[in-house]
Amino acid sequence: xxxxxxxxxxxxxxxxxxxxxxxxxxxxxDAVIGTNWAWILAIVFLxxxxxxxxxxxFVKQIKSQRAMQALQPKVKELQEKHKxxxxxxxxxxxxxxxxxxxxxxxxxxxxxxxxxxxxxxxHVLRRLDPAKINKTLxxxxxxxxxxxxxxxxxxxPIAGKFGSTADELARLGANGTTVxxxxxxxxxxxxxxxxxxxRQMILKTGWAEDPQQKMVQRLMxxxxxxxxxxxxAIFPIGVIIYWVTNNLFTLGxxxxxxxxxxxxxTPGRTGVKSSSPVQPAKTAGLFGRKAxxxxxxQAPAAPKVAGPKPGAKPANPKKSRPAKxxx
Length: 327
Known about the structure:
With about 325 residues, the chain is an all-alpha fold. Helix content is about 70%, strand content about 0%. The protein has a two-stranded antiparallel ribbon with strand order 1-2.
C-alpha cells in the first residue's frame, strides 16, 4: 500500500522550521489578541515555500493556456467542419493538441500538485489532539506538539473545525460558538477567493471555444467554490488559513504574470488590432486635416476672390488705373 508518510514528514518539517524561525526572530509564542502568530505565520509561509517550489510549473501552466488560446481559431474550424460528429471532432482535436504540443489539462496541474500538500497539512493538523499518545510522530517534539495543539486564531484553535464535536472541542479547550464563527467566516472567505482566482484568469484569457475546456472553466469558476460550502465544515481552521493564503498568493501571482506577459490576441482582438493600423491612418488624417485647412483656406483661391481686393486697395488701384489709362 502506498504510504503518504513522506508528505507528512515534509509538511511537518516546513511548519516546524518556519515556527522556529519566527520564534528566533522574536514573534511571541504566547497568544496576542487571542492568536498564536508564530504558528499562523508558519502556515502562511508553508504556502510561500510551496508556491516558490511550484513557480516553474505555474509558468508552464500559463504557457499552455496561451498555446490553447492561440489554437482557438483552429478549434473553431474543426467544430464547424465536424458539426454533429462529436467522436470525429474529439479525435481531430486531440490530434491538433498533440501536433501543436498543447495540453488541455496543464491548466489544472499546479492545483493537482498542491493536493498532496493540502492533504498532508490536513492530516498533520488533525493529529493536533492533546489526547494523542504518540506526539513525536513525523519529527515533532512533545513541546512542539503541545504548543501547536493549543495554538489559536482569535481564541479558536487551528486544529478545530466548524463540524467539531463537543468532545473534540473539550479536548482542545475551545468554545463551540467561537470556533463556528471563526471557521464559518474563513470558509466564506475561502469560497470568495477561490471564485476570484478562477474569474481573474478567465477575464484575462477569455472563455474557451472547446466545449470540454469551457466545462472545466465553469467547474473551476462555480463548482469548486460551491463545493467548499459543504467540505469546508470538515477542514481544520489551520487548513482554511492555508487555502485562503494560497488563493491570495495566486491572485497576486496571476496579476503579475498577466501584466508582464499579456495574453495573445484573440481573433476578435486581432480585428481590433487590424483596425488599429487604421487609427494611425486616422491620426495621420487628423494631421492631414490640419494641413488641409491650409488648402481649404487655399491662399491662392481665397486671395484671388477676397484677398487681393483688400490688399490691393492701397496700391493696386493706383497701379491698375494708370495701366488701364495706358491701355
